[in-house]
């Protein structure tokens, strides 16, 4: 795990713990031993610490958290590095994160490869840098720059690190890294902790005030600030003690457990249990997209951004031009924010071939259909596609609800067909539900999962059912939300329960964003429910400036007296006497019902594992990450409590409601024994 090699007076210590050089117990022990030996060995003049492979180190071994950590502890190992009488130089050969970067901070000098990324992402796991990072980083870069890195958790490039004083030198090629590091071998040992901190507690407070978004709902960012303030105001030993105390508090806290669950859940979602790991994938060199609407364009952008050529097909020249122009507009907006160069925009656009020729899809290795959500239309498109696509091409539908098996059956090659359900806006949202049909070939599934990751998405496998994982769970939530309003709640009350919980928006805010008219029968005379009543009045959501709420020109939301009157009128018409609805009932009927549906999804094998459901909601709908996702949250909440709640309100639920047998089983298995 730790390799030591001596060249002349220089001892090179290499962290060699694939795949990411995590700092588990073995690595910590090896590193401590190697440093102690170097300090004692008269023939060693200087030490270089580096990582093997492409990474320096991804930091502490996250899987060790939650249990007592074996000695030596990382802070002690780093203290030994810092107090080594010989110069210790970090040769940062690649990504250095968390405890990995903290090793480098404890070294006396830092030389980084230009391609390396440096970061302290602990906050994303609900903790803070716990091996001196909060004390040493401010000593190198000052309070403000340190807070930016520690509280956002986002890594910086080697050149940014050099500009801020975090690294001493940037090297362009890997071959030159060790010579550059060795150039510091005759410099004096220079402990970071001996430096003064630039910036003070007031600059930390100013950072908090200027960045409210980074703190919303979370506890760790506040602890990060407290620790950095300690660096600015206390002697090192006390600062380190503050950091340690906060680290231990956070690591055993609920948020960190949930965030660590989310980290591992995302990675296990990529694994498909019944596929051989080394299955050969189909090459995908060109992608076809049918439909240049908002969805088709967004889907196309994912591939263009990843350097894959895209053929985009439409039926009218006008729609095609509008689609291509929208893609350009989106790229240019990103460039205007400084996140893309003009050259990158042009490079992406050069990969796009808009065409009216359906036959052009014959050149594509993967074709994604993103047309109107209607089974007959989709069946027709797949029939045509079957006639032009080359043998072996993968044919995907972006349907968000429909039966992928029925779509596949319209082709002569159902083994090549699956669903790729992107979430809107498709160029931004990271989730893709990969819908595995009854006949989808294993290599087709494996190819799309790998391709999804390549384009920066989080792909999750789902089986065929109405709405797959995410939208299927949305149905009971939205149905109950509407019933609750009929029975006496206001849209505002229901939405507030959700936003207080941490959701980016509530059920009605979401309906307004997506369009109240989705699925509407389009007959203004026929009013079956509240949504019909809104649609009949042209209140189709944000796009018409009015839905369950009113919107101004800047799409700022406000409560609508018109809607309040409509609701009242509608209740009267239905003979409903409104009653006071408590928030607890809203939680049960809109959140517990989602968990119930999730349990059914598991029962039926639609999701491979409970954590996949969490990943769908974290990445597709903005479920608050610090609760771990609906199924992780449910376990915390208590399955028995959830079942009891569902039973209590079962009579009020929309027709067809039933409690999942799996959920009942879990409730019994986890129920506290009655004393
Ligand atoms: C810390 O350092 C605390 C200290 O301040 C204080 C201590 C006292 N541990 O993501 P990938 C696994 S907290 C354990 O697919 P990539 C990962 O699960 C740590 N395992 O690769 C996966 O396993 P599997 C702060 C880890 O190339 C495999 O490695 N550091 C760790 O897409 C490959 O990972 C972080 O938060 C870990 N630290 O991305 C960094 N890291 O194959 C977390 C990865 O079985 N890591 N694994 O599914 C990352 O951000 C990405 O993994 C990284 C590579 C960018 C490094």
From TrEMBL:
It comes from the Bacteria. SUPFAM superfamilies: 6-phosphogluconate dehydrogenase C-terminal domain-like, ClpP/crotonase, NAD(P)-binding Rossmann-fold domains. Gene3D superfamilies: 1.10.1040.50, 2-enoyl-CoA Hydratase, Chain A, domain 1, NAD(P)-binding Rossmann-like Domain. It catalyses: a (3S)-3-hydroxyacyl-CoA + NAD(+) = a 3-oxoacyl-CoA + NADH + H(+). Its main location: other. CDD domains: crotonase-like (cd06558). Keywords: Fatty acid metabolism, Isomerase, Lipid degradation, Lipid metabolism, Lyase, Multifunctional enzyme, NAD, Oxidoreductase, Peroxisome. PROSITE patterns: ENOYL_COA_HYDRATASE. Residues 287-462 form the 3-hydroxyacyl-CoA dehydrogenase NAD binding domain. Monomer. Belongs to the enoyl-CoA hydratase/isomerase family. PANTHER family: 3-HYDROXYACYL-COA DEHYROGENASE, PEROXISOMAL BIFUNCTIONAL ENZYME. This is 3-hydroxyacyl-CoA dehydrogenase NAD-binding domain-containing protein. It comes from Novosphingobium clariflavum.
């Amino acid at each position: 795990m730790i390799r030591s090699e001596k060249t002349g007076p220089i001892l090179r210590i290499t962290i060699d713990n694939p795949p990411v050089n995590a700092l588990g117990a073995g690595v910590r022990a090896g590193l401590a031993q190697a440093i102690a030996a170097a300090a004692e060995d008269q023939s060693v003049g200087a030490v270089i610490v580096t990582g093997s492979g492409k990474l320096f180190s991804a930091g502490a071994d996250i899987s060790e958290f939650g249990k007592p950590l074996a000695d030596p502890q990382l802070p002690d190992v780093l203290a030994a590095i810092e107090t080594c009488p010989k110069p210790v130089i970090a040769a940062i050969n690649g990504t250095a994160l968390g405890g990995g970067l903290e090793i480098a901070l404890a070294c006396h000098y830092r030389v980084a490869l230009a391609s390396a990324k440096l970061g302290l992402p602990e906050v994303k796991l609900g903790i803070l840098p716990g091996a001196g990072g909060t004390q040493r980083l401010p000593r190198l870069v000052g309070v403000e720059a340190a807070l930016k890195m520690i509280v956002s958790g986002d890594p910086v490039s080697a050149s940014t690190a050099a500009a801020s004083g975090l690294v001493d030198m940037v090297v362009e090629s890997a071959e030159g890294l060790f010579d550059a590091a060795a150039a510091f071998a005759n410099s004096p040992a220079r402990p970071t902790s001996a430096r003064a901190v630039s910036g003070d507690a007031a600059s930390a407070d100013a950072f908090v005030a200027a960045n409210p978004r980074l703190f919303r709902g979370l506890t760790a960012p506040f602890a990060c600030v407290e620790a950095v303030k300690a660096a600015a105001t206390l002697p090192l030993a006390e600062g380190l003690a503050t950091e340690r105390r906060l680290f231990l508090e956070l690591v055993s806290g609920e948020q960190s457990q949930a965030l660590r669950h989310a980290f591992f859940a995302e990675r296990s979602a990529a694994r498909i249990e019944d596929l051989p790991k080394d299955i050969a994938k189909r090459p995908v060199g060109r992608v076809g997209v049918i439909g240049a609407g908002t969805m088709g364009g967004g889907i196309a952008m994912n591939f263009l951004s990843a350097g894959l050529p895209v053929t985009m097909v439409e039926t009218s020249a006008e729609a095609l031009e509008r689609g291509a122009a929208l893609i350009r507009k989106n790229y240019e907006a990103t460039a205007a924010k400084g996140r893309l160069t003009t050259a990158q925009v042009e490079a992406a656009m050069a990969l796009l071939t808009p065409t009216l020729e359906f036959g052009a899809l014959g050149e594509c290795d993967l074709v994604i259909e993103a047309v109107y959500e209607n089974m007959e239309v989709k069946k027709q498109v797949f029939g045509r596609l079957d006639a032009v696509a080359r043998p072996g091409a993968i044919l995907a539908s972006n349907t968000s609800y429909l039966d992928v098996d029925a779509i596949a059956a319209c082709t002569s090659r159902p083994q090549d067909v699956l669903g790729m359900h992107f979430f809107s806006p498709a160029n931004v949202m990271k989730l893709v539900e990969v819908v595995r049909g009854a006949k989808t070939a294993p290599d087709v599934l494996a190819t799309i999962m790998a391709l999804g990751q390549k384009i920066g998405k989080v792909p999750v496998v789902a089986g065929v059912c109405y709405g797959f994982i995410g939208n299927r769970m949305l149905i009971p939530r939205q149905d109950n939300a509407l019933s609750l309003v009929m029975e006496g709640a206001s849209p505002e009350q229901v939405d507030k329960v959700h936003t207080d919980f941490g959701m980016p928006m509530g059920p009605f805010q979401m309906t307004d964003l997506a369009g109240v008219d989705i699925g509407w029968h389009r007959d203004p005379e026929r009013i079956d429910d509240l949504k019909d009543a809104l649609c009949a009045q042209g209140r189709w959501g944000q796009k018409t400036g009015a839905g369950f709420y009113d919107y101004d020109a800047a799409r700022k939301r406000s409560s609508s007296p018109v809607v309040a009157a409509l609701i009242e009128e509608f209740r009267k018409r239905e003979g409903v006497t409104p009653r006071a609805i408590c928030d607890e009932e809203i939680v049960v009927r809109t959140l517990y019902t989602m968990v119930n549906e999730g349990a059914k999804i598991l029962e039926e094998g639609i999701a491979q594992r409970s954590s996949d459901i969490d990943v769908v909601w974290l990445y597709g709908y903005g479920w608050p990450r610090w609760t771990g996702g609906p199924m992780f949250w449910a376990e915390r909440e208590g399955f028995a409590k959830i079942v009891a709640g569902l039973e209590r309100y079962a009579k009020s639920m929309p027709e067809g409601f039933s409690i999942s047998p799996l959920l009942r089983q879990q409730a019994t298995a986890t129920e506290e024994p009655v004393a």
